[in-house]
Amino acid sequence: MIGAALLEPQFTGLIGVENTNFLGIPVQAVDYATTLFPIFAAIFIYQFVDKFLKKIIYKDIQLFAVPMLSLMIMIPLTVILFGPFGTFFGDLLSGSVMWLFEKSRILSGIVLGGGMTFMVMFGLHWGFTPVTLDNLTRLGGDPIEGMALAAVFAQIGIAVGFFLRAKKHSKMRALAGPVALTGFFAGVTEPIVYGIILRYKRLLPIVAISGGLGGAVLGAFGVTMNAYVFHNIFSLPVYSPLVGYLIGITVSLLSGALLAYFFGVKESELTEFEAEPESEVESILTNAATPIYSPVKGQVMPLAEVEDDVFASGIAGQGIAVIPDEGIIRAPFAGTVVAVFPSKHAIGIKSDQGVELLIHVGLNTVNLNGEFFDVNVENGATIARGDRLLTFDRQAILDKGYQLSTPVIVTNCGPDTVIEYETTAGTIEAEGILFTVNNEG
Questions:
Q1: What are the CA-CA distances from residue 441 to residues 30, 216, 281, 417 (Å)?
Q2: Nearest to 298 by CA among 413, 434, 428, 166
Q3: Residues recognised as catalytic
Q4: Does residue 413 carry a pLDDT above 90?
């Protein structure tokens, strides 16, 4: 919501307007369309605002009051703080680079080619735009963008390297291939930066090195961009000299690809590079019917009536809810514990037939941070039906104002999964059958 507000047309319409203010505080409106830094910084501050408001606002009105007040505080704060930050440092950077260009083209190429990726992340690249437009008007060509394009092809090279490193039918190949093509043919590399480079920290120095190498070549040849375009293969005619351009982008692309291929990922991070098995749901669910016994004695209610949109809509999975009459959660089948939540309010288990089940005690009880809960099993533990999984102080949680509706949901339903409910209302005893999971595939 904060990010969307920064792109709202009435706000972006203020870009370039002088004497803009908010309650008398000067505001410099800038374009946030290609940077995530303001959002990273805003959310870092937002977490403290959110926690503070939840402490002082009555629980029954938190659902609408906390987001509303948070936005009223955070959007002006973000605009007032980060607009001037980006403008000031962007102007400072552009001036410094032009000074460096006069001293050494190669050194300025290294700085621009190696650093432009990081400048874009922080939104500081906009400081170069006025200088670029001025160079195009007065000189007919701009050396800044002529050197900075090395960063684009370094990023594309990294995507190519990861595509070649990944096995067929792997998640990384499915990601790296399309984003490399998008960068190569359209000059849009944000998916590479935010989808790959920031996920694998070894790529940060690699994109700097490969961009710097290409930038040095472009600077040495004095390459200029002679029209304002996206840096992609179709904009080739607007750069001169053409030979220098081709050599520079080739150096960036090849060095990025080779460094990413051989050094870009740790052995422990290769999961996404491995070929995926056939559909996980189809491979782990057997055709045998799996009865799901109630993990707790209580009142049964349809999942659609739970006062939580995520559970009620079925986004999290299919199942039912129980309002506990006691404070003990027991295993509804034999299987394995696959997830013990740090806040102790929920637990994920997997049956021997492959059914994955989430038992979530109460609504928004994650905010209790484990208070009033005790977990009786460890992650990876083997369980038998009826084993105690966790206990909780039912009355203490109610006294704190939380609802105890407890969703019991299957999280790995496939297209062939059918759930047959034994009951959707009334009282159920612990270990009475709630529903049966069938896989008809």
A1: 54, 58, 10, 8
A2: 428
A3: 360
A4: no
